[in-house]
């Protein structure tokens, strides 16, 4: 049952990530700002087309690798490998949330409005916090599955 819920959430996260990606891309200028120095001044730009194809390739490859790795581990005979496979699916959800937050931040950074970037920090910390919770749950479940063997 948890695998079905996790798989449904993974698919929803991919759909939301695609939506965020295309909305963010639509609002970007021809030269996309991707790096600021410590003073907050622009340092590095890339072309909009390079950003589109590079980001799209990164998102597809990342999700495909997580899907393949999760399925390979889930179909293993080892109890720990099956547990790891289920958690790989849930990690892909967290990675997709992080990518969505990062794309939203890049869209805001390249927007024409003045925005207080410090108010966006909790969203980035939320992604990192989700990963820490996932890591603790993963380690706990691995310890439990090892004890049952």
Radius of gyration: 18 Å
State the helix count: 4
Overall, the morphology is elongated
Structural class: mainly alpha
Neighbour order of strands in the largest sheet? 1-2
Output mean pLDDT: 87
Can you characterise this structure?
The protein has 149 residues and is mainly α. The chain has one domain. Helices cover 74% and strands 8% of the residues. The chain has four helices and two strands; from the N terminus they run αββααα. A two-stranded antiparallel sheet has the order 1-2. α1 runs parallel beside α3 and α3 (79-109) packs antiparallel against α4 (121-148). The chain starts with a helix and ends with a helix. The model has no long low-confidence stretch (mean pLDDT 87).
List its traits.
149 residues; mainly alpha; two-stranded antiparallel ribbon; 4 helices
Short description:
With 149 residues, this protein is mainly α. 74% of the residues lie in helices and 8% in strands.
Task: Itemize the secondary structure elements and their pairings.
Blueprint: H1 2-26, E1 31-36, E2 42-47, H2 48-74, H3 79-109, H4 121-148
Antiparallel strand pairs: 1-2
